[in-house]
Amino acid sequence: SLSSVTKSQRLSELEFDLPINQFDWNHFPTLLDNNNIPIRINTEKPVTGILNGKIDLFFEQDNRYYLLDWKSNHLGSKPEDYHPEALAASMEENNYYLQYYFYCLALLRYLRLRLPDFDYEKQFGGVYYLFVRGIRQGTNHGIYFHKPLLSDLLQLEEVFLKQMI
């Protein structure tokens, strides 16, 4: 429960900047996590510069770090309309998978800088996308959870980001 996360265990609206290499989107993976996570790119133009974003909530619970994003998408009028398949369809339609991979990459870099012995497999808990219109106590409706593979994040970091100086 989020009510058990104290103020000292969380950062709201965590802003990040990711320096982008001259990057050709044609080399960006279209499927991640053993081909289960579809990624859609809406441009073919090479990009460079800084990607800026804000993570709704970054928190620590039981020595594991998580990110959480609130979503208000309307998927239907009943809590049952927010079942896992409907959430997956909305995640793909809105390209939220790509969004949270960037968020995870930013957090990976953040945690490696602040915790010299950071171990992704043991200390990163995963990603929550909470579709607030569908959440009801006692169900998992409206709750999307995933923990990206470290190998995918390292691959994205290698091809997408400039090296830190």
Task: Characterise this structure.
Helix content is 27%, strand content 32%. The relative contact order is 0.21. The protein starts with 9 loop residues before the first strand and ends in a 5-residue tail after the last helix. It is globular, with a radius of gyration of 16 Å. It has 165 residues and is α+β, with helices and mostly antiparallel strands. The mean pLDDT is 84. It has helices at 84-93, 96-114, 120-123, 150-160, and strands spanning 10-23, 31-32, 37-38, 47-61, 64-71, 124-131, 143-146. A hairpin with a 4-residue loop joins strand 2 and strand 3.
Keywords:
alpha+beta; 27% helix; 4 helices
How are the SSEs placed, and which strands pair?
Blueprint (H helix, E strand, L loop, with lengths): L9 E14 L7 E2 L4 E2 L8 E15 L2 E8 L12 H10 L2 H19 L5 H4 E8 L11 E4 L3 H11 L5
Parallel strand pairs: 5-6
Antiparallel strand pairs: 1-4, 2-3, 4-5, 6-7
Helix pairs in contact: 2-4
What characterizes the major β-sheet? Answer: 5 strands, mixed
Proportion of β residues? 25-35%
**How many helical elements?**
4
Shape: globular
Query: What's the gyration radius in Å?
Result: 16 Å
* Tally of strands: 7
Low-pLDDT runs: none
Strand order in space, largest sheet: 1-4-5-6-7
Provide the structure class. alpha+beta
Mean pLDDT: 84
Order of helices and strands: EEEEEHHHEEH
Q: How far apart are the first and last residues' alpha carbons, in Å?
A: 39 Å
Helix content: 25-40%
